[in-house]
């Protein structure tokens, strides 16, 4: 059963759909004109270069290669015409050339307005990462079909899964090379703020994100204020005297006296608390006094990967990233890693690769029977058939919540990519209605926004459920 919603059709949106298709076709025509222009430019200058060689000496050593310089010049002129950056035009040209020459299904869908420019570019980029020509053919066929029914963000996650599943060894090598580029950088932007960027291994970054979020969300957790932030002045009960200058407190004096926990009246947003917590950790060299928080990272892992018999990558619980097999095995043998195992089904261990070839399969399906949490929990008892158990009462037991989150990955509303771990576990049929059981077949992950829309009647449950007994 598809636990997502395939389409939300409102007749009033027909004109929007038609206009979007027209816009995409116009953009495809513009891209075709770009390819034709650059081709003519290169041909013309290649002819000029050939004529020049008849009357001049050979190009001196170290001089720029003529064809490459002609292409760069064409990109420059095209960028001026499109009022875009040379980098953007160059990347668009590379992707369009790849699609036109090697991805016939993708190129046809693009020209027909079925898929957008970003979707075409993402498919083309992914195809360039593949070694096998057969895999390129499969990506073209299935990727274009998937793109026609999903958002660019969903397509990006699907492409990552496809490439990693079809060529796991090559994907692991690229991952290892990318990890070698890890770094921290600071970019100063306007209005007195800067962007601190850290390029880290994915699992490490995910653990940091989850730890920051879990601690910052706690109502009891005390998080110091950033001393560089001057709080908004309180609204005075009496109008201020215009002749008196405003008093701006020193940054070092802003932290004392301000509430540091939600319970104490802290009014900072979650993002602000997270940023201040991050700064406190880095500046002091030690963590604040933290309360217990769940900071586990959920992965779906093929059994053959664990045994070393295959190199299929693990997949994150929300399907947003892959973890190479060598990294998974290294994490599992590290003394600081604690795992909790769940068995979510009895699918073949080849499901990870086969699901990547099936754009029609719901993203919510578990890609492999073995799921684990990497985190501070101690291993607990396992239920090998947790998704088939019916529970009494309305509230969903913890082990079933975890199973639903692994199964669904993200919010099941169309196009929504809020991780299931941040979603409500909702009864599709209300608990008090006939058939509204607390069991996996009647539960799905919905973010709070879409949960409210479903409760208000604007988000219907899947047809398969409505027609069930």
Largest beta-sheet details = 5 strands, antiparallel
Oligomeric grouping of the chains: single chain
How much β-strand is present in the residues? 5-15%
Number of strands: 9
Gyration radius, in Å:
27 Å
Low-confidence stretches: 240-254, 346-356, 358-369, 375-384, 464-469
Average pLDDT taken over every residue: 80
Strand adjacency order, main sheet: 5-4-3-7-6
- Give the helix tally: 16
- Helix content estimate: 40-55%
Shape by Cα distribution: globular
First-last Cα distance: 14 Å
Task: Give me the secondary-structure topology.
Elements: H1 14-53, H2 66-82, H3 86-102, H4 104-111, H5 117-129, H6 133-149, H7 152-166, H8 168-179, E1 183-188, E2 194-199, H9 202-217, H10 270-284, E3 297-300, H11 303-307, E4 314-316, E5 322-323, H12 325-333, E6 338-343, H13 351-356, E7 370-375, H14 398-408, E8 424-427, E9 443-446, H15 448-455, H16 463-466
Antiparallel strand pairs: 1-2, 3-4, 3-7, 4-5, 6-7, 8-9
Helix pairs in contact: 1-2, 1-3, 2-3, 3-5, 4-6, 5-6, 5-7, 6-7, 7-8, 9-10
Walkthrough of the structure:
- Among the domains are: 14-55 and 66-149, no CATH class; 297-466, no CATH class.
- With 469 residues, the chain is α+β, with helices and mostly antiparallel strands.
- Strands 5-4-3-7-6 form a 5-stranded antiparallel beta sheet. A two-stranded antiparallel sheet has the order 1-2.
- It is globular and about 75 Å long.
- The model is unreliable at 240-254, 346-356, 358-369, 375-384 and 464-469 (pLDDT under 50).
- α6 (133-149) runs antiparallel to α7 (152-166) and α7 (152-166) crosses α8.
- It has helices spanning 14-53, 66-82, 86-102, 104-111, 117-129, 133-149, 152-166, 168-179, 202-217, 270-284, 303-307, 325-333, 351-356, 398-408, 448-455, 463-466, and strands at 183-188, 194-199, 297-300, 314-316, 322-323, 338-343, 370-375, 424-427, 443-446.
- A hairpin with a 5-residue loop joins β1 (183-188) and β2 (194-199).
- Helices cover 45% and strands 9% of the residues.
